[in-house]
Amino acid sequence: MVKRVADFNVNRSRSRGAVVALLGVATVAIGIASAADPPPSSYSAVVAKEPFDQTVKRMSAEKKAINRRQADLLNERYDLSDRPAKEVTMSRGKPVQQGVRAGLPEGATWDKLGRMSPAELRAAGAWPKAFLPLPHPNHPEGGMLFPQQHIDEIKRQEQRDLTRFDLDFDLPAHLLPEFPPPIYLTTRPDLGDVSQGKVVTIMNYFELFNGILNPKQLEGLRLLVTPFPQQQFNQTDDRRSLMSHRGVTCFDCHVNGHTNAATHLVGDIRPQEFRHRLDTPPLRGVNIQRLFGSQRALKSVEDFTEFEQRAAYFDGDPVIAAKKGVNVLERGSQVHSMAEFQEILDFPPAPKLNVFGKLDPDQASEAELRGQELFFGKAQCAACHPAPYYTDNLMYNLKTERFFEPQRINGRMASADGPIKTFPLRGIKDSPPYLHDGRLLTLDDTVEFFNLVLGIELTKQEKADLVAFMWCL
Predict the structure, then answer these.
(1) How do 419-421 and 263-265 pair as beta strands?
(2) What is the DSSP letter of 210?
(3) How far apart, in whole angstroms, are the C-alpha atoms of residue 321 and residue 318?
(4) Based on the domain organization, do 291 and 148 belong to the same domain?
(5) Whether the predicted pLDDT of 189 surpasses 50
(6) What is the H or E stretch that residue 440 is in?
(7) Are 196 and 150 in contact (CB under 8 A)?
(8) Tens of pLDDT, residues 288-312
(9) In this structure, are 154 and 241 located in the same domain?
Protein backbone atom coordinates (compact mmCIF):
# COMPACT_ATOMS: atom_id res chain seq x y z
CA MET A 1 0.00 0.00 0.00
CA VAL A 2 2.82 2.35 0.91
CA LYS A 3 4.59 1.48 -2.33
CA ARG A 4 1.46 2.24 -4.42
CA VAL A 5 1.08 5.67 -2.84
CA ALA A 6 4.75 6.43 -3.48
CA ASP A 7 4.46 5.32 -7.12
CA PHE A 8 1.32 7.50 -7.55
CA ASN A 9 3.09 10.57 -6.19
CA VAL A 10 6.10 10.00 -8.44
CA ASN A 11 3.91 9.58 -11.53
CA ARG A 12 1.81 12.64 -10.62
CA SER A 13 4.99 14.69 -10.21
CA ARG A 14 6.28 13.53 -13.57
CA SER A 15 2.94 14.30 -15.24
CA ARG A 16 2.82 17.77 -13.71
CA GLY A 17 6.39 18.42 -14.85
CA ALA A 18 5.50 17.31 -18.36
CA VAL A 19 2.47 19.63 -18.43
CA VAL A 20 4.56 22.55 -17.19
CA ALA A 21 7.18 21.80 -19.82
CA LEU A 22 4.54 21.64 -22.55
CA LEU A 23 2.99 24.92 -21.37
CA GLY A 24 6.42 26.50 -21.43
CA VAL A 25 7.00 25.38 -25.01
CA ALA A 26 3.55 26.64 -26.00
CA THR A 27 4.21 29.99 -24.34
CA VAL A 28 7.51 30.35 -26.19
CA ALA A 29 5.83 29.37 -29.46
CA ILE A 30 3.05 31.94 -28.93
CA GLY A 31 5.65 34.56 -28.09
CA ILE A 32 7.61 33.80 -31.25
CA ALA A 33 4.46 33.92 -33.40
CA SER A 34 3.40 37.22 -31.84
CA ALA A 35 6.81 38.78 -32.34
CA ALA A 36 7.06 37.56 -35.93
CA ASP A 37 3.52 38.42 -36.99
CA PRO A 38 1.93 41.06 -34.75
CA PRO A 39 -1.73 41.83 -35.40
CA PRO A 40 -2.40 44.89 -37.59
CA SER A 41 -3.02 48.10 -35.69
CA SER A 42 -4.96 51.22 -36.63
CA TYR A 43 -2.57 53.36 -34.56
CA SER A 44 0.79 54.91 -35.40
CA ALA A 45 3.64 54.65 -32.92
CA VAL A 46 3.61 57.68 -30.64
CA VAL A 47 7.28 57.35 -29.70
CA ALA A 48 9.82 56.92 -32.51
CA LYS A 49 11.52 53.51 -32.50
CA GLU A 50 14.93 54.81 -33.57
CA PRO A 51 16.86 58.10 -33.47
CA PHE A 52 15.95 60.53 -36.25
CA ASP A 53 19.41 60.49 -37.85
CA GLN A 54 19.25 56.69 -38.13
CA THR A 55 15.77 56.93 -39.70
CA VAL A 56 17.09 59.40 -42.27
CA LYS A 57 20.09 57.20 -43.05
CA ARG A 58 18.03 54.02 -43.36
CA MET A 59 15.18 55.47 -45.44
CA SER A 60 17.48 57.53 -47.66
CA ALA A 61 19.40 54.36 -48.47
CA GLU A 62 16.16 52.58 -49.38
CA LYS A 63 14.81 55.47 -51.49
CA LYS A 64 16.43 54.54 -54.81
CA ALA A 65 15.13 50.96 -54.73
CA ILE A 66 11.61 52.09 -53.77
CA ASN A 67 11.52 54.68 -56.57
CA ARG A 68 12.77 52.05 -59.02
CA ARG A 69 10.12 49.54 -57.94
CA GLN A 70 7.36 52.09 -58.61
CA ALA A 71 8.94 53.14 -61.92
CA ASP A 72 9.04 49.50 -63.02
CA LEU A 73 5.34 49.14 -62.17
CA LEU A 74 4.41 52.27 -64.15
CA ASN A 75 6.48 51.21 -67.16
CA GLU A 76 4.90 47.76 -67.06
CA ARG A 77 1.39 49.27 -67.02
CA TYR A 78 1.64 52.36 -69.20
CA ASP A 79 3.12 54.13 -72.18
CA LEU A 80 4.57 57.17 -70.38
CA SER A 81 5.86 58.95 -73.50
CA ASP A 82 5.14 62.60 -74.25
CA ARG A 83 2.48 62.49 -77.02
CA PRO A 84 0.49 65.75 -77.04
CA ALA A 85 -2.73 66.14 -78.96
CA LYS A 86 -2.69 68.51 -81.93
CA GLU A 87 -4.25 71.92 -81.21
CA VAL A 88 -5.77 70.79 -77.88
CA THR A 89 -4.45 72.51 -74.79
CA MET A 90 -5.34 73.16 -71.18
CA SER A 91 -6.58 76.59 -70.16
CA ARG A 92 -3.16 78.27 -70.10
CA GLY A 93 -1.74 76.46 -73.08
CA LYS A 94 -0.14 73.23 -71.84
CA PRO A 95 -0.67 70.46 -74.44
CA VAL A 96 -3.20 67.78 -73.53
CA GLN A 97 -1.81 64.26 -73.74
CA GLN A 98 -3.67 61.96 -76.11
CA GLY A 99 -3.93 58.27 -76.83
CA VAL A 100 -4.53 55.15 -74.77
CA ARG A 101 -1.59 54.70 -72.41
CA ALA A 102 -2.79 51.49 -70.75
CA GLY A 103 -0.94 48.39 -71.90
CA LEU A 104 -2.83 45.34 -73.15
CA PRO A 105 -2.36 41.70 -72.18
CA GLU A 106 -0.40 39.71 -74.76
CA GLY A 107 -2.52 38.89 -77.82
CA ALA A 108 -5.41 41.11 -76.73
CA THR A 109 -7.04 44.05 -78.47
CA TRP A 110 -9.47 46.58 -77.02
CA ASP A 111 -12.20 45.26 -79.31
CA LYS A 112 -11.66 41.69 -78.09
CA LEU A 113 -11.74 42.77 -74.45
CA GLY A 114 -14.88 44.82 -75.08
CA ARG A 115 -16.73 41.69 -76.24
CA MET A 116 -15.80 39.67 -73.13
CA SER A 117 -17.98 39.44 -70.04
CA PRO A 118 -16.60 40.34 -66.59
CA ALA A 119 -16.43 36.64 -65.72
CA GLU A 120 -14.52 35.86 -68.92
CA LEU A 121 -12.05 38.70 -68.34
CA ARG A 122 -11.47 37.50 -64.79
CA ALA A 123 -11.05 33.84 -65.73
CA ALA A 124 -8.60 34.71 -68.51
CA GLY A 125 -6.63 37.18 -66.36
CA ALA A 126 -7.18 39.66 -69.19
CA TRP A 127 -8.10 42.76 -67.18
CA PRO A 128 -5.46 45.36 -68.15
CA LYS A 129 -2.97 45.95 -65.33
CA ALA A 130 -3.35 49.70 -65.81
CA PHE A 131 -7.00 49.37 -64.75
CA LEU A 132 -6.11 47.79 -61.42
CA PRO A 133 -5.89 50.11 -58.39
CA LEU A 134 -2.74 52.24 -58.50
CA PRO A 135 -0.59 52.01 -55.36
CA HIS A 136 1.06 54.95 -53.64
CA PRO A 137 4.75 55.25 -54.67
CA ASN A 138 5.51 53.57 -51.32
CA HIS A 139 2.22 52.14 -50.18
CA PRO A 140 3.34 50.67 -46.82
CA GLU A 141 4.67 54.13 -45.86
CA GLY A 142 2.18 56.46 -47.60
CA GLY A 143 1.91 60.16 -46.84
CA MET A 144 1.69 63.43 -48.78
CA LEU A 145 3.92 63.53 -51.84
CA PHE A 146 4.34 66.47 -54.21
CA PRO A 147 5.47 66.83 -57.86
CA GLN A 148 8.93 68.33 -58.25
CA GLN A 149 7.71 71.45 -60.05
CA HIS A 150 5.63 72.39 -57.01
CA ILE A 151 8.48 71.61 -54.60
CA ASP A 152 10.79 73.89 -56.57
CA GLU A 153 8.35 76.81 -56.68
CA ILE A 154 7.45 76.71 -52.98
CA LYS A 155 11.13 76.52 -52.06
CA ARG A 156 11.83 79.54 -54.30
CA GLN A 157 8.99 81.65 -52.85
CA GLU A 158 8.92 80.61 -49.20
CA GLN A 159 12.19 78.76 -48.56
CA ARG A 160 9.92 75.92 -47.37
CA ASP A 161 11.16 72.57 -48.68
CA LEU A 162 8.53 69.92 -49.43
CA THR A 163 11.17 67.35 -50.42
CA ARG A 164 10.87 63.98 -48.67
CA PHE A 165 14.14 62.23 -47.82
CA ASP A 166 12.50 58.83 -48.31
CA LEU A 167 10.53 59.15 -51.55
CA ASP A 168 9.94 61.02 -54.83
CA PHE A 169 6.75 61.63 -56.82
CA ASP A 170 6.24 59.04 -59.56
CA LEU A 171 4.36 60.39 -62.61
CA PRO A 172 6.19 62.50 -65.25
CA ALA A 173 5.29 66.20 -65.50
CA HIS A 174 3.82 66.03 -69.02
CA LEU A 175 1.04 63.76 -67.69
CA LEU A 176 0.10 66.18 -64.91
CA PRO A 177 -2.07 69.34 -64.88
CA GLU A 178 -0.49 72.54 -66.14
CA PHE A 179 1.56 74.45 -63.60
CA PRO A 180 0.71 76.96 -62.40
CA PRO A 181 -2.99 76.66 -63.25
CA PRO A 182 -5.19 79.71 -63.84
CA ILE A 183 -7.78 80.91 -61.32
CA TYR A 184 -11.28 81.88 -62.43
CA LEU A 185 -13.79 83.47 -60.03
CA THR A 186 -17.57 83.18 -60.22
CA THR A 187 -17.74 86.71 -58.78
CA ARG A 188 -15.48 88.32 -61.41
CA PRO A 189 -15.68 86.39 -64.69
CA ASP A 190 -14.77 89.61 -66.49
CA LEU A 191 -11.21 89.34 -65.13
CA GLY A 192 -10.43 85.93 -66.63
CA ASP A 193 -7.39 84.33 -65.02
CA VAL A 194 -6.65 86.31 -61.84
CA SER A 195 -3.49 84.34 -60.93
CA GLN A 196 -1.29 86.46 -63.26
CA GLY A 197 0.55 83.23 -64.09
CA LYS A 198 1.82 82.83 -60.51
CA VAL A 199 1.52 80.15 -57.84
CA VAL A 200 -0.49 81.78 -55.05
CA THR A 201 1.28 81.51 -51.68
CA ILE A 202 1.43 83.28 -48.34
CA MET A 203 4.07 85.53 -49.92
CA ASN A 204 1.88 87.01 -52.68
CA TYR A 205 -1.80 86.31 -51.98
CA PHE A 206 -2.46 89.83 -50.66
CA GLU A 207 -0.97 91.72 -53.59
CA LEU A 208 -2.78 89.44 -56.06
CA PHE A 209 -6.23 89.56 -54.46
CA ASN A 210 -6.51 92.75 -52.43
CA GLY A 211 -9.29 94.77 -54.05
CA ILE A 212 -10.78 91.70 -55.79
CA LEU A 213 -11.93 89.75 -52.71
CA ASN A 214 -13.90 91.04 -49.76
CA PRO A 215 -12.08 90.94 -46.37
CA LYS A 216 -13.69 87.65 -45.33
CA GLN A 217 -12.73 85.92 -48.58
CA LEU A 218 -9.23 87.36 -48.31
CA GLU A 219 -8.89 85.93 -44.80
CA GLY A 220 -10.11 82.57 -46.07
CA LEU A 221 -7.47 82.60 -48.81
CA ARG A 222 -4.79 83.51 -46.25
CA LEU A 223 -5.66 80.40 -44.24
CA LEU A 224 -5.64 78.24 -47.38
CA VAL A 225 -2.03 79.27 -48.09
CA THR A 226 -0.78 79.22 -44.47
CA PRO A 227 1.48 76.25 -43.58
CA PHE A 228 0.25 74.08 -40.72
CA PRO A 229 1.81 70.87 -39.34
CA GLN A 230 1.06 67.62 -41.14
CA GLN A 231 2.04 63.97 -40.67
CA GLN A 232 5.20 64.05 -42.82
CA PHE A 233 6.04 67.77 -42.49
CA ASN A 234 6.34 69.06 -38.92
CA GLN A 235 8.87 69.44 -36.08
CA THR A 236 8.73 65.92 -34.60
CA ASP A 237 11.30 63.15 -34.97
CA ASP A 238 8.97 60.97 -37.06
CA ARG A 239 8.61 63.46 -39.93
CA ARG A 240 9.85 62.79 -43.48
CA SER A 241 11.56 66.14 -44.10
CA LEU A 242 15.20 66.67 -43.24
CA MET A 243 14.66 69.94 -41.40
CA SER A 244 12.02 70.79 -38.82
CA HIS A 245 9.08 72.00 -40.86
CA ARG A 246 6.32 74.60 -40.67
CA GLY A 247 4.00 72.17 -42.46
CA VAL A 248 1.86 72.18 -45.59
CA THR A 249 -0.98 74.31 -46.94
CA CYS A 250 -4.30 73.41 -48.54
CA PHE A 251 -2.94 74.92 -51.76
CA ASP A 252 0.14 72.68 -51.70
CA CYS A 253 -2.15 70.01 -53.18
CA HIS A 254 -4.96 72.18 -54.54
CA VAL A 255 -2.54 74.66 -56.08
CA ASN A 256 -4.33 77.87 -57.12
CA GLY A 257 -7.60 76.24 -56.13
CA HIS A 258 -7.08 73.54 -58.76
CA THR A 259 -4.74 70.54 -58.45
CA ASN A 260 -1.13 69.58 -59.13
CA ALA A 261 -1.90 65.82 -58.85
CA ALA A 262 -0.16 65.54 -55.46
CA THR A 263 -0.90 62.17 -53.91
CA HIS A 264 -1.60 60.74 -50.46
CA LEU A 265 -3.50 57.79 -48.94
CA VAL A 266 -7.10 58.06 -47.76
CA GLY A 267 -7.32 58.51 -44.02
CA ASP A 268 -10.41 56.46 -43.29
CA ILE A 269 -9.52 52.91 -44.37
CA ARG A 270 -7.49 50.33 -42.45
CA PRO A 271 -5.40 48.22 -42.58
CA GLN A 272 -2.72 50.00 -44.58
CA GLU A 273 -2.72 47.71 -47.60
CA PHE A 274 -6.41 48.47 -48.28
CA ARG A 275 -6.02 52.25 -48.20
CA HIS A 276 -6.60 53.93 -51.55
CA ARG A 277 -4.13 56.22 -53.25
CA LEU A 278 -5.60 59.70 -53.72
CA ASP A 279 -5.41 61.82 -56.84
CA THR A 280 -6.01 65.38 -55.61
CA PRO A 281 -9.22 66.67 -57.24
CA PRO A 282 -9.71 70.31 -58.31
CA LEU A 283 -11.52 72.76 -56.06
CA ARG A 284 -12.99 74.42 -59.13
CA GLY A 285 -16.77 74.40 -59.08
CA VAL A 286 -17.22 73.31 -55.46
CA ASN A 287 -20.17 75.72 -55.32
CA ILE A 288 -22.22 73.25 -57.39
CA GLN A 289 -21.02 70.13 -55.55
CA ARG A 290 -22.85 68.45 -52.68
CA LEU A 291 -20.42 65.63 -51.87
CA PHE A 292 -16.77 66.03 -50.92
CA GLY A 293 -14.01 63.45 -50.63
CA SER A 294 -13.89 60.64 -53.21
CA GLN A 295 -15.61 58.19 -50.84
CA ARG A 296 -16.33 60.00 -47.59
CA ALA A 297 -19.54 61.70 -48.78
CA LEU A 298 -18.91 64.78 -46.64
CA LYS A 299 -21.88 67.02 -47.16
CA SER A 300 -20.38 70.52 -47.33
CA VAL A 301 -17.15 72.23 -48.22
CA GLU A 302 -17.01 73.37 -44.59
CA ASP A 303 -17.07 69.73 -43.45
CA PHE A 304 -14.38 68.89 -45.99
CA THR A 305 -12.15 71.80 -44.95
CA GLU A 306 -12.36 70.92 -41.28
CA PHE A 307 -11.92 67.19 -41.88
CA GLU A 308 -8.78 67.73 -43.93
CA GLN A 309 -6.90 69.73 -41.31
CA ARG A 310 -8.15 67.86 -38.25
CA ALA A 311 -7.93 64.31 -39.60
CA ALA A 312 -6.64 63.75 -43.15
CA TYR A 313 -3.44 65.68 -42.45
CA PHE A 314 -2.66 63.13 -39.71
CA ASP A 315 -3.98 59.84 -41.14
CA GLY A 316 -7.14 60.15 -39.06
CA ASP A 317 -5.17 59.67 -35.82
CA PRO A 318 -6.06 62.25 -33.11
CA VAL A 319 -3.15 61.23 -30.84
CA ILE A 320 -0.60 61.85 -33.60
CA ALA A 321 -2.41 65.06 -34.53
CA ALA A 322 -2.05 66.34 -30.96
CA LYS A 323 1.63 65.36 -30.91
CA LYS A 324 2.48 67.10 -34.18
CA GLY A 325 0.46 70.26 -33.63
CA VAL A 326 -3.01 69.95 -35.12
CA ASN A 327 -4.53 73.19 -36.36
CA VAL A 328 -7.99 73.24 -34.76
CA LEU A 329 -10.04 75.54 -36.95
CA GLU A 330 -12.83 77.67 -35.52
CA ARG A 331 -15.94 76.65 -37.42
CA GLY A 332 -17.88 79.88 -37.27
CA SER A 333 -15.15 82.14 -38.61
CA GLN A 334 -12.04 80.40 -39.98
CA VAL A 335 -13.73 77.41 -41.63
CA HIS A 336 -16.49 79.64 -42.97
CA SER A 337 -14.00 82.12 -44.43
CA MET A 338 -12.00 79.34 -46.11
CA ALA A 339 -15.19 77.85 -47.55
CA GLU A 340 -16.38 81.24 -48.78
CA PHE A 341 -13.27 81.62 -50.93
CA GLN A 342 -13.39 78.04 -52.21
CA GLU A 343 -17.01 78.50 -53.25
CA ILE A 344 -16.16 81.26 -55.74
CA LEU A 345 -13.59 79.17 -57.65
CA ASP A 346 -15.07 78.74 -61.10
CA PHE A 347 -14.61 76.21 -63.88
CA PRO A 348 -12.46 77.35 -66.83
CA PRO A 349 -14.21 78.91 -69.82
CA ALA A 350 -15.71 76.48 -72.33
CA PRO A 351 -16.46 78.64 -75.39
CA LYS A 352 -18.17 75.88 -77.35
CA LEU A 353 -20.84 75.27 -74.70
CA ASN A 354 -24.15 77.12 -74.53
CA VAL A 355 -25.93 78.20 -71.34
CA PHE A 356 -27.29 74.67 -70.84
CA GLY A 357 -23.82 73.12 -71.01
CA LYS A 358 -24.37 71.59 -74.44
CA LEU A 359 -22.41 72.23 -77.63
CA ASP A 360 -23.28 75.18 -79.81
CA PRO A 361 -23.69 73.55 -83.26
CA ASP A 362 -22.19 76.61 -84.93
CA GLN A 363 -19.02 76.29 -82.85
CA ALA A 364 -18.49 72.50 -82.68
CA SER A 365 -16.96 70.09 -85.18
CA GLU A 366 -18.78 67.04 -86.54
CA ALA A 367 -16.67 64.72 -84.34
CA GLU A 368 -17.49 66.76 -81.22
CA LEU A 369 -21.22 66.71 -82.03
CA ARG A 370 -21.11 62.94 -82.60
CA GLY A 371 -19.31 62.60 -79.27
CA GLN A 372 -22.01 64.61 -77.51
CA GLU A 373 -24.72 62.37 -78.98
CA LEU A 374 -22.82 59.31 -77.71
CA PHE A 375 -22.27 60.90 -74.30
CA PHE A 376 -26.00 61.41 -73.80
CA GLY A 377 -26.92 58.18 -75.57
CA LYS A 378 -25.18 54.89 -76.25
CA ALA A 379 -22.17 55.51 -73.99
CA GLN A 380 -24.45 56.20 -70.96
CA CYS A 381 -22.03 58.84 -69.58
CA ALA A 382 -24.85 61.28 -68.82
CA ALA A 383 -26.52 58.76 -66.49
CA CYS A 384 -24.00 59.95 -63.89
CA HIS A 385 -22.63 63.10 -65.55
CA PRO A 386 -25.61 65.22 -66.72
CA ALA A 387 -25.24 68.75 -68.09
CA PRO A 388 -24.58 71.54 -67.36
CA TYR A 389 -21.85 70.68 -64.81
CA TYR A 390 -21.62 66.99 -65.68
CA THR A 391 -22.15 65.56 -62.21
CA ASP A 392 -25.21 64.22 -60.41
CA ASN A 393 -23.67 64.66 -56.93
CA LEU A 394 -24.22 60.97 -56.16
CA MET A 395 -21.97 57.96 -55.50
CA TYR A 396 -21.69 54.73 -57.50
CA ASN A 397 -19.97 51.41 -56.96
CA LEU A 398 -18.41 50.35 -60.28
CA LYS A 399 -17.71 46.87 -58.85
CA THR A 400 -14.47 46.53 -60.77
CA GLU A 401 -13.62 43.51 -58.59
CA ARG A 402 -15.83 41.56 -61.06
CA PHE A 403 -12.98 41.71 -63.54
CA PHE A 404 -9.91 40.48 -61.63
CA GLU A 405 -8.71 38.27 -58.80
CA PRO A 406 -7.69 40.08 -55.60
CA GLN A 407 -3.95 40.65 -55.62
CA ARG A 408 -1.24 42.52 -53.77
CA ILE A 409 0.64 45.13 -55.84
CA ASN A 410 3.65 46.87 -54.27
CA GLY A 411 2.04 46.70 -50.84
CA ARG A 412 -1.47 47.65 -52.09
CA MET A 413 -4.22 45.03 -51.86
CA ALA A 414 -6.16 45.39 -55.09
CA SER A 415 -9.72 44.36 -54.41
CA ALA A 416 -13.07 46.18 -54.23
CA ASP A 417 -13.00 49.98 -54.51
CA GLY A 418 -16.47 50.55 -53.09
CA PRO A 419 -18.69 53.57 -53.89
CA ILE A 420 -16.97 56.57 -55.52
CA LYS A 421 -18.51 60.00 -55.96
CA THR A 422 -19.34 61.38 -59.39
CA PHE A 423 -16.73 64.02 -60.17
CA PRO A 424 -17.75 67.00 -62.35
CA LEU A 425 -16.46 66.76 -65.93
CA ARG A 426 -16.49 70.51 -66.60
CA GLY A 427 -12.90 71.47 -67.34
CA ILE A 428 -11.88 67.80 -67.28
CA LYS A 429 -9.02 68.15 -69.77
CA ASP A 430 -7.23 70.38 -67.21
CA SER A 431 -6.96 67.75 -64.48
CA PRO A 432 -5.21 64.52 -65.49
CA PRO A 433 -4.76 61.78 -64.33
CA TYR A 434 -8.25 60.38 -63.84
CA LEU A 435 -10.39 58.24 -61.51
CA HIS A 436 -10.11 58.64 -57.74
CA ASP A 437 -6.61 57.13 -57.54
CA GLY A 438 -5.16 58.45 -60.82
CA ARG A 439 -4.88 55.04 -62.50
CA LEU A 440 -6.16 56.43 -65.85
CA LEU A 441 -3.58 58.72 -67.43
CA THR A 442 -5.62 60.19 -70.30
CA LEU A 443 -9.23 60.66 -71.32
CA ASP A 444 -8.65 57.96 -73.96
CA ASP A 445 -7.78 55.56 -71.12
CA THR A 446 -10.91 56.67 -69.28
CA VAL A 447 -13.13 55.87 -72.26
CA GLU A 448 -11.56 52.40 -72.64
CA PHE A 449 -11.99 51.75 -68.92
CA PHE A 450 -15.69 52.63 -68.87
CA ASN A 451 -16.29 50.82 -72.14
CA LEU A 452 -15.28 47.61 -70.33
CA VAL A 453 -16.92 48.45 -66.98
CA LEU A 454 -20.28 49.33 -68.57
CA GLY A 455 -20.09 46.76 -71.40
CA ILE A 456 -21.22 49.20 -74.07
CA GLU A 457 -19.00 47.96 -76.97
CA LEU A 458 -18.02 51.30 -78.50
CA THR A 459 -16.26 51.33 -81.85
CA LYS A 460 -12.85 52.92 -82.36
CA GLN A 461 -14.45 55.97 -84.02
CA GLU A 462 -17.02 56.33 -81.26
CA LYS A 463 -14.27 56.33 -78.63
CA ALA A 464 -12.38 59.06 -80.48
CA ASP A 465 -15.56 61.15 -80.80
CA LEU A 466 -16.28 60.85 -77.08
CA VAL A 467 -12.81 62.13 -76.22
CA ALA A 468 -13.24 65.02 -78.69
CA PHE A 469 -16.46 66.00 -76.91
CA MET A 470 -14.94 65.85 -73.42
CA TRP A 471 -12.09 68.08 -74.55
CA CYS A 472 -14.79 70.73 -75.14
CA LEU A 473 -16.06 70.63 -71.56
Answers:
(1) unpaired
(2) B
(3) 5
(4) yes
(5) yes
(6) none
(7) no
(8) 999 998 887 889 999 999 989 888 8
(9) yes
